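Minutes, project check-in
Item: structure for the 316-residue chain
Input as provided by the requester:
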Amino acid sequence: MITHHLEFCGEAQTPIALDDQAGSSIRGALVGALWERFCVNQALPTCAGCPLTQACPVYELIAPMRDVGETGGEQRPRPYVTRPPVGRSYSPGEQLDFGLALIGPVARLFPYLVMAAQDIEHQGLGRRLPQLGGQRGRIALTTITALNPLTNERKPLYQRGNRQVHMPDCSVTAIDVRAYAQSLPNNQVSLTLATPLRLIEDGRLVHRFDPLPFFKRLAWRLDELGRAYGTGPLSAGPDLVASAAATIQVLHDETRWVDVVSFSSRTRQKTPIGGLIGTLTLIGDLAPLQELLVWGSLVHVGKNAVKGDGWYRISA
């Protein structure tokens, strides 16, 4: 499996107010722009009945369906995740950065994402503000950069005022993941949960970090992504992962639960996207799990990954 990581930088033109989990605002704006600009069958309730799915970027990015014979639910996991901005409010002139990771071959759809991101300039971003007459804040997209989070390699793709746009060619491969994993200690690592980690085990939310459901969910997600967008599962199998994870302990736990909701302007519905944030340290025989940890830091884990949940950083 291959991932491409993009950093979008913009400048606030007016005040901007984002949701508490700002990835939801970014994802909603991009999805809305893609749908409005490129969907030619907007009257249909879903993509399932559309005859144009094989040539539609909206279908491939937003609602990819499983092929006949594929196991699992009706829909494949979406081939992207959002990296939310750090701040929640921005004044005119301040820089606003957010990220997007593309999983597998959908990187070829990058030009559509550039046009969708440019459309956000006209549609606005974040909450509707009284001081703007009930309109969303305005942003000017200035640059888009491709980066490899494991090697810190960076390549410019788009610069405001320059009509030429370069395709992403700064990918993260299985070789990069393996090399980075081997550089980590095999008996202790720390994780920083930068966005809410929302896990469900036996039908219940996991309110306190537990290595077993964490690694089980991580392996499940990576196997699903590997089958859909790579050459096959990325884990050694659920039984081996569970056996290895059962020996891992939490040495320090400084995480806390936060309640957050996202709101869809299209469906007019609220969705809970809260979870655990903070730092923790894991100890034990981590060698069989290191590559899974690195992959997870790239593609997130748990519920609502496309909205930015489940993003964590690894440190020795």
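Outcome recorded: The CA atoms of residues 18 and 126 lie 5 Å apart.
No further action items on this chain.
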